[in-house]
Design goal:
Layout: E1 9-11, E2 14-16, E3 21-28, E4 37-45, E5 48-57, H1 65-74, E6 83-89, H2 94-98, H3 122-133, E7 140-145, E8 151-159, H4 164-173, E9 178-180, H5 188-194, E10 199-205, H6 212-228, E11 248-253, E12 258-261, E13 269-270, E14 275-280, E15 287-291, E16 296-302, E17 306-307, E18 312-318, H7 322-335
Parallel strand pairs: 5-6, 5-7, 7-10, 8-9
Antiparallel strand pairs: 1-2, 3-4, 4-6, 8-10, 8-16, 11-18, 12-14, 12-17, 13-16, 14-15, 16-18
Helix pairs in contact: 1-6, 4-6
């Protein structure tokens, strides 16, 4: 039996009818020059009822992989058969995005400012606008991130795996690693949890850089989640890679300050006491090895070779079955490499 016909919705005071696609500009806080700022939201409202999925990116303004993921997603012909509603916000932190900065003009972190307040700081006001007009209109959400500046992350999901619906969608996304963790105070994940909205946080790549493997995996993962939600017709594709959940994670830090050489790559399996790299001084008089304190898989790392004592160098995920995790990462990387999809559209070239 076909789902019932959809009803119209209102986003930001703008009505959207079934079968309609609209770009809605939500009024955002003004800056010193009193120039008008708007938060652009793309709403695709299907003709048939279904979930309302929100996809957001660039809550940290310099984390731009998600912007390209959403752009590619919005070009997919499959969305013409959408059930329910897709609400896409390619750039949430419009101020940081324009300034290539993680933060807002007042140096606040938007992802520590939710649910916000319409009488607070610029960060609080933008957060409140997003919660009231976008998140509250959704039944499910996916938030797209990268590592912070001068770091890179292996593609992975962060989610509450103790929540059955969230765990189901994390498995559908198909990232090789899923980290089960508590929400941080003031984060979008916490705001979504308060509204009882299942949310997946996708981490992949580094700030101010496009990563083709991470982008491809993000688009495919979102489409897979939409099929799991029955927003898109299912198709006979090969099953996704079952995500593995580390029992713990830890950062390996610099034992000395200096110049770092030869750090282990993302996805590599390491054993306890492996030499992961060396820290030297610029004069060739000191060289200290960086040793692995435990076995696991590299899920994050620094990308800058100049380190201070105590700097985070490498993020280690510890698994009960590290060999299985290593195979899952290798299969994931092979499946999403830039040359792995011969059916790629000529209008959608890889970003290298």
């Amino acid at each position: 039996t076909a789902p019932p016909r959809n009803k119209g919705i209102v986003v930001g005071g703008v009505p959207v009818t079934p079968g309609q696609r609209r770009i809605i500009d939500l009024p955002a806080p003004a800056l010193t020059t009193r120039e008008d700022f708007h938060l652009p939201v793309v709403v695709i409202h299907g003709r048939r009822q279904g979930p309302r999925l929100c996809i957001s990116s660039a809550i940290h303004g310099d984390e731009i992989n998600g912007v390209e993921i959403i752009r590619r997603l919005l070009t997919r012909p499959a969305l013409n058969r959408l059930r329910g509603t897709l609400i896409a916000v390619p750039v949430v932190n419009i101020y940081g995005f324009l300034n290539r900065s993680r933060y807002l003009p007042d140096r606040r972190d938007l992802n520590r400012s939710f649910p916000g307040s319409d009488k607070g700081s610029i960060a609080a006001r933008l957060a409140r606008l997003y919660v009231d007009e976008v998140l509250a209109a959704s039944t499910h959400a996916i938030d797209l991130h990268t590592a912070a500046i001068h770091r890179e992350n292996l593609p992975h999901i962060r989610a509450n795996m103790d929540h059955p619906e969230t765990a189901r969608l994390a498995a559908a996304f198909g990232a090789p690693v899923t980290i089960n963790g508590d929400t941080l105070a003031g984060s979008l994940r916490e705001a979504a949890a308060e509204l009882r909205i299942p949310l997946l946080l996708y981490e992949a790549g580094e700030a101010l850089r496009f990563n083709e493997t991470a982008i491809r995996a993000g688009v495919r993962g979102i489409l897979s989640v939409m099929r799991a939600l029955e927003m898109l017709p299912s198709r006979g594709t090969r099953p996704g890679i079952a995500p593995l959940v580390p029992h713990s994670t830890q950062w390996i830090r610099a034992p000395e300050g200096g110049v770092l050489r030869h750090l282990a790559p993302l996805g590599k399996r390491i054993e306890q006491d492996d030499v992961l790299g060396f820290i030297s001084d610029p004069f060739g008089e000191m060289e200290v090895p960086v040793l692995a304190p435990a076995s696991g898989i590299v899920i994050g790392r620094t990308t800058i070779p100049l380190v201070n004592e105590g700097d985070a160098l490498l993020h280690l995920g510890r698994f009960d079955r590290p060999s299985e995790a290593e195979r899952a990462v290798e299969a994931f990387q092979a499946a999403h490499a830039p040359d792995s999809d011969p059916a790629r559209l000529p209008t959608d070239p890889p970003v290298l």
